[in-house]
Amino acid sequence: MKRSSTRSSSLTRWLSQNTGFAAALLLFTALFLTYNVMHPRGFSSAVAIQNANETVAIAFVAMAQTLPVLIGGLDLSVGAVMTLANCVASELLTGSPLQIVLGAVLTLLTGALFGFMNGCIVVYGRIQPIIATLATGAVAIGLALLIRPKPGGNVDDDLSWALTNSVWDLADTYGFADGGEAWWLRPFADIPVPFLLVVLIAVIVWVPFRRSVTGRTVYAIGSAEGAAYMSGLPIQRAKITAFTLAGFLAACGGLYLAIQTSSGNADVQQAGAYTLNSIAAVVLGGTSLLGGTGGAIASLVGAMILRVISFYFRILDIDPLLQPLIEGLVLLTAVSFGAFRTLRVKNQLDLFR
Amino acid sequence: MDRALKPGERTRMTEAIVEYQGISKYFAGIRALEGVDFKCRSGSVHAILGENGAGKSTLIKIMAGVLQPDAGSVLMEGKEVSFAGPQAAVDAGIVCMFQELSLIPDLSVADNISISSPPRRFGLIDRRAQVRRAEELLARVRCEDVDPNALVRELSLSRRQMVEIAKALGRNPKVLILDEATSALTARDVRTVYDLLAELKDAGVASLFISHRMHEVEALCDTLSVFRNGQHIETFQKGAKSEREIVRLMIGRDVDAQFPPKPDRAGDAAMAEPILEVKNLKWGNRLNGIDLSLRRGEIVGLGGLDGQGQKELLLALFGVLKDVAGDVRVGDRKGLPTSPATAKNAATRMALVPEDRKTEGLMLDMSIADNLLASSFRRISRGPFIDPGRAAAEIGKGIAKLQIKIGSADDPVMTLSGGNQQKVVLAKWLMIDPDIILLNDPTRGIDVGTKQEIYRLMRELANEGKAILFYSSDYAELIGCCDRVSVLYGGRVVSEQSGDGITEESLVAASLNIDVEAA
After folding, report:
1. Which terminus of chain B has a lower count of CB atoms within 10 Å, N or C?
2. B35 and B163 together in one domain
């Protein structure tokens, strides 16, 4: 190609356009490998399964938070919608296989509907996302408490076991692939199912969304809403879709939490913690809170970083009381790098826009 | 007038592809367009000319579906249409390139070119096809060096403008509106745009060309329309009128504002040492070597059409811009202030009345008193605390000096009329007793009475020995108020006029960078 000299290679270009994500990926890899080296049973299926189980819910909630952040907003209801879905699932995930599937679908639908409502309030009510979702988040927690005043529930045991262990256990439980012994299953047998679930949802929901006009519009709104309008993009539809998907992904987290704990728990503190951690994970993944850049996969990595940090407390014998302090310092260090952007601004008035 | 086109008079040309009948548009009761009849034809390149505020941009926004007219109708190929939004206009074939670019900085060039209707496969955006399409369109505008996968924000302004053109081309326009499309382009790109317009003309596209560069209009357009004060004055063919006649059509009004007399001090003012001296001031591609001097007791105007660097010059002098190059002396100090705070606190104090009163001049929700004091807390404080007695006295003085009409000084400043709001901004800055006053279009959007008060105030301040640098988009103001006027064009001072040499004709001609004597 005669133009190749003036064009950077695709890898360099990707790196320059996704510096935050690349840094997050590097940080996670370093943290995770070190953790496994230090762990007495590091690099084993058991450790991987435990880690994956503890990461799934926050990973989904962080992916959920990404969409409102991309349009330049914040969704303070993601933790609450996760909790609501958790409580709905604890009522419905029982009975015949068909009933269980129906229950899961209804749970996810609850979250998506709640997100749709958030989107409509933001678009048609013209209320800022942060305050609209603060209010609807309280509504979601209220509904969760109505459904499940006390922790508990009834979740199918087989399902619970199969989805929180390795692929071999999944096959063994439901008796397919020769109970997990089939030759073609061997290479995947030790992979944790929860990890596959997150990847599956990311691939079937996020990837197509990213390549749709609606998904592109979400980025355009966060980047330059005026230009998006002038270009004739469907702004209202994109905003509503962003919140609907956020609700759906938060419900995925809640559904998994119900399967993992075999119960539902309308825990107000937990909901709040998940919401705040989701924002931290989004930022750690390299998504700008101003909107327009980043993505759900990046937030997934951000969520994994948050979790790996907490794993260290177990093996290093650090006082768990120090955990918030250290997590705070890591977050602060990570976001400081983002502030270098402002050094390049030539018109100081632009800093305030 | 002999070759002026009246509607329906000429049959040689093809039918109007789009026609506007009796279009009116008002903003808060103020006329932006009134009863405009306008049509443009397939296969023509049609220039729209007018001063600042003539209604050109309102007309374009109505054409592009961004604004809806308050009255009148739009006929597209003979059928009445109305556009609910920009996409509806694009679907009908009216594609507009806006002056403020409509590109999304965080998306790639290829994404932007096919922004709202990308090529798809299985319902999803086909990135490869999109890149191929971008490459084809970029090749048409001879920008093969632009990487379709680069983010728009990585591109220079001139490349962005070319991408914007490629995006417009990709939308298969029947009517293509170019609003200052060449303002940031290099000479080579301008050539490309010329060729492209010729190509489109042959293909039957109607191009509407809004430019402040008279030589471009001369080179490109076959039909010219002049707008003035929200009205369509006349449409004629190229060559039917001289540049001088065109300029006169664009002005065509009486100077009706009353200005205070200018003192005849040309002699001793010229002797005095300038308080502000600027040599070869450069910033990005907006300021390209400005030379300017300002003396005490003098009002110097900045002329020229909007966006020729006047605002950037004022911001640079006030310390808002970074990486400004050039030699500057303010009073006894060399160099520019590094921030507005240093500008106002230096030995030679500066004040800037900014362009946008509502975001940069005032804190709208705060009280009149708080706004008046915002720049002078240092002068009215004892230690860390505001001295209420001194504050009240200063507020009283400020209100009296500018005769601001208020109920109570504790009311939010947004309850005041535009004129009184602007007086609050002025009073705020006068409280610091500035030596140099920078004014960015201070009379925009305010009533005639207040305007005249501001003119008188400016002259009083100059007589007290202050130096005033005054940007106005209204030529009458520059003529009436200024001792000297520097006309900016493309980030340079292209003409300096003083005394009786400042006339409307000379200002308009200089702002279009044409030489009236030669025309």
Report:
1. N
2. no
CATH of the domain at B186: 3.40.50.300
Structure-token pair, residue B385: 């605390």
Residue B494 is predicted with a pLDDT of 92
The verdict on a CB contact (< 8 Å) between A347 and B320 is yes
Q: Do B182 and B77 have their domain in common? A: yes
Q: Is B252 left (phi over 0), alpha (psi -120 to 50) or beta?
A: left
CB A121 within 8 A of CB A127: yes
For B147-180, write each residue's pLDDT tens digit: 999 999 888 878 888 999 999 999 999 999 998 7
CB of B115 within 8 Å of a chain A CB? The answer is: yes
For testing contact with chain A, the best of B63, B87, B104 (most A CBs within 10 A)? B104
Q: What are the pLDDT digits (tens) for B212-240?
A: 777 788 888 999 999 888 889 999 998 88
| Residues B442, B343 share a domain | yes
* Whether residue B388 is found in the same domain as residue B497: no
- Indicate the helix (H) or strand (E) that contains A221: helix A213-230
Both B52 and B194 in one domain: the answer is yes
Q: How far apart are CA B185 and CA A242, in angstroms?
A: 37
Which chain A residues are within 8 Å of B146, Cβ to Cβ? none
Q: Which residue of B has its CA nearest to A12?
A: B150
Same domain, B246 and B345: no
Picking from A210, A211, A236 by the largest number of B CB atoms within 10 A of its own CB, the best residue to mutate is A211
Residue B99 lies in a domain: no
Tell me the pLDDT tens digit for each residue of A222-252: 998 988 988 889 999 999 999 999 999 999 9
Tell whether A232 lies on the interface with B, counting CB pairs under 8 A: yes
Task: Give me the residues of chain A with pLDDT under 70, please.
Answer: 1-8, 338-343, 353
A9 interface with B at CB cutoff 8 Å: no
Instruction: Measure B337 CA to nearest chain A CA, in Å.
Output: 13
Q: Could you give all domains of chain A from N- to C-terminal order, each with its CATH number?
A: 55-336 (1.10.3470)
Work out the minimum CA distance from B313 to partner chain A, whole angstroms. 12
For B102, the closest of A6, A17, A231 (CB atoms) is A231
Looking at the fold, whether B285 and B238 belong to one and the same domain comes out as no
Inspect the interface and report whether the beta carbons of A233 and B115 lie closer than 8 Å. Answer: yes
**Is the pLDDT higher at B245 or at A302?**
A302
A3 touches chain B (CB under 8 A): yes
Distance (Å, whole) CA B33 – CA B475? 20
Question: Does residue B270 lie in a domain region?
Answer: yes
Hey, are the CB atoms on A216 and B103 less than 8 Å from each other?
A: no
Structural domain containing residue B310: 254-349+434-519
Chain B contact for A269, CB < 8 A?
no
Radius of gyration (C-alpha) of chain B in whole angstroms: 25
What whole-number distance in Å separates Cα of residue B49 and Cα of residue B247? Answer: 9
Residue B339 sits at the chain A interface (C-beta within 8 Å): yes
The answer to whether the CB atoms of A7 and B147 lie below 8 A apart is: yes
In whole angstroms, give the CA distance from residue B514 to residue B213.
9
Q: B-chain residues within 8 Å CB-CB of A348?
A: 320-322, 339
Q: Which positions in chain A touch B130 (Cβ < 8 Å)?
A: none
Cβ distance of B107 and A220 shorter than 8 Å: yes
State phi, psi for B150 to the nearest 5 degrees.
Answer: -75, 150
Closest-approach residue (CA) in chain A for B154: A17
Helix or strand or coil: residue B250? helix
Helix (H), strand (E) at residue B226: strand B223-228
A141-200: pLDDT as tens digits: 999 999 999 998 889 999 999 999 999 999 988 888 888 788 888 888 889 999 999 999
**Residue B2: predicted pLDDT:** 41
Closest CA to B296 of B314, B279, B275, B317: B275
**Distance (Å, whole) CA B211 – CA A216:** 33
pTM across the whole model: 0.79
Domain endpoint, select from B253, B277, B298 = B253
B154, B172, B190 - which closes a domain: B172
pLDDT band at B28 (very low <50, low <70, confident <90, very high): low
Number of folded domains in chain B?
A: 4
Average pLDDT value over all residues in chain B: 86
